[in-house]
Amino acid sequence: MPDSPTLPTGDNAAYRAPTPTRTPPEGAHALVVGATGITGSALIDELVEAGWRTTGLSRRSLDIPGAGHVAADLTSLDSLQSALDGLQPTHVFITAWSRQETEAENVRVNGGMVRDLLAVLGPQGSLRHVTLVTGFKHYLGPFEAYGIGELPDTPFLEDAERRPVENFYYAQEDELTAAAAAHGFSWSVHRASTVFGHVVGNAMNMASTLGAYAAIVKATDRPFLFPGSQVAWNGVVDITDAELLADHQLWAATTPQAADTEFNIVDGDLVRWRRLWPQLAEYFGVRAEGPGETPVPLEEQMVGAEAVWEKLVAEHDLAEPDLSRVASWWHTDSDLGRETEVFGDMTRSRVAGFTGWVNTTGSLLDMLGRYRADRILP
């Protein structure tokens, strides 16, 4: 594994502020909705380490020592009623969403998931705080109108007016605040930028996607071509580390001055892909190449890449043979193809007392090293 001369890997703690232990309040029981995702899995790790009674909700099984599990279909009220009967969590962390064909369907399905979940849990009388993870599509617009039209100025501020388009994030927030008013719990919304985390099988994981892309172009003797736009290459952008996002949610759930508030959550630094891309190329031992006048998306570059991945799995004894569980070309294309700078302001969190930060480049390289150690990447 090559080491960067300026950004050594191996000790993730060197790239983040010390994380306080978020001691559970008396009688606390945390329910993480979307427990196997990039955000939910990091949150469960932190909850268990801090000593919380923790239950994960997901369709797939959960194998994290110290955490319980309930299986449920978030799109089915009957399934939720059956799975959650008598659970009585005190703190709920909603980190799940379900991608649909149209934004109208996204609104119906994802807004309905929050509404039905809280319609089941609210009457149980145990809820103290509910967090909801959304993202910067709150400011940029949904996939159907992504980055189109007049956008809020950067850095994005939490009190920016909603854009005049359908957006399932708006629907989810509205369902959350309505349920809080009806059942008497506090809430917080956590708007993340692109999330980097250590998980397999997530549709939003750029870190493992770029690692798989680098491995494939190396195996086929091709350049590590930046697939996105000139604007994304030259502009500044911020990232959200999944562990930092987990701590931000726990902070809000246990801090009275954070109640009933929307927050941006980003690492706290800014990066430019034109600076980061050559560092990633050096790390992987590939030839970096910047973008052309027209983006060449990963979905286009990686047609037929499954056969190359199959050979890499055999050569390196990799643990995940299914490339689609390691790489999510479409989602990374949407992030790197933006025609606008994207970064958010963290002042609201700082004023309320949150002090976490992460060095994006260092934590990304450390994360890639963990993927290699786990034999997810060659």
UniProtKB/TrEMBL annotation:
Transmembrane segments: none annotated. Residues 90-319 form the PRISE-like Rossmann-fold domain. Pfam families: PRISE (PF22917). Residues 1-25 are annotated as: Disordered. InterPro entries: NAD(P)-bd_dom_sf (IPR036291), PRISE-like_Rossmann-fold (IPR055222). PANTHER family: 3-OXO-DELTA(4,5)-STEROID 5-BETA-REDUCTASE. This is SDR family oxidoreductase. The lineage of its organism: Bacteria, Bacillati, Actinomycetota, Actinomycetes, Nakamurellales.
